[in-house]
């Protein structure tokens, strides 16, 4: 069963996800760092470090949101980063962030569907995604699109929430996600559904070896998975 933000809504997951992120865009950055206790910043640094050796010149940040992952990727000194997202609300916040920080020339924020990327094939040296693939309406289609726009030998780096397997982190994580996170989200955001959707979507997501299996079936090479912070999130990489 497909997990969606608004259970009584007939709209597709894609439409619902865009609407959800539009609704929480103003509070997203604050809540993201607050709810993860700032650990997400370190996760992004580790993800970008996987690309240091290849020195990509043109990078695509899929489901860029407000652009935090794209900004972290500037440490690689690329010629250009293009961030693409389906939510105009998130992009609006991101574009203001780029202007305020002086990154507008280096990072473009483009409206687009992750499952129908508006780029030709074999275009990017690297594609990065942070906490976005879980929201794809069709996971395989989105991952196939990422592979399509990658240059041969190019690398995809994907950061996504996963499910801790071991006691006591498994139990603590489950309690926090089910009971604490939705209450905090409801307190600061006008869209309570966003923070009940988050744990439900993580629970339904095929993480770890299951995700690697999908990458392999789609023809990716050298796929790897590295659990982070007791398995709260996982860092995946693969090449075309």
Feature tags:
8 helices; 7-stranded mixed sheet; single chain; alpha/beta; 240 residues; 7 strands
**Beta-strand content bin:** 15-25%
Residues in helix, %: 40-55%
**Secondary structure tally, helices:** 8
Give me the count of strands: 7
Q: Which runs of at least 5 residues are low in confidence (pLDDT < 50)? A: none
Largest sheet, strands/sense/barrel: 7 strands, mixed
- What is the mean pLDDT? 94
Structure characterization notes:
The chain has 240 residues and is α/β, with parallel strands linked by helices. The protein has helices at residues 13-35, 39-49, 68-73, 88-101, 139-149, 169-188, 194-204, 209-217; strands at residues 58-62, 80-85, 107-111, 124-130, 150-161, 221-228, 233-239. It has a seven-stranded mixed β-sheet with strand order 3-2-1-4-5-7-6, with helices on both faces. β2, α4 (88-101) and β3 form a beta-alpha-beta unit. The radius of gyration is 17 Å and the shape is globular. The mean pLDDT is 94.
Secondary structure elements and their pairing?
Layout: H1 13-35, H2 39-49, E1 58-62, H3 68-73, E2 80-85, H4 88-101, E3 107-111, E4 124-130, H5 139-149, E5 150-161, H6 169-188, H7 194-204, H8 209-217, E6 221-228, E7 233-239
Parallel strand pairs: 1-2, 1-4, 2-3, 4-5
Antiparallel strand pairs: 5-7, 6-7
Helix pairs in contact: 1-4, 6-7
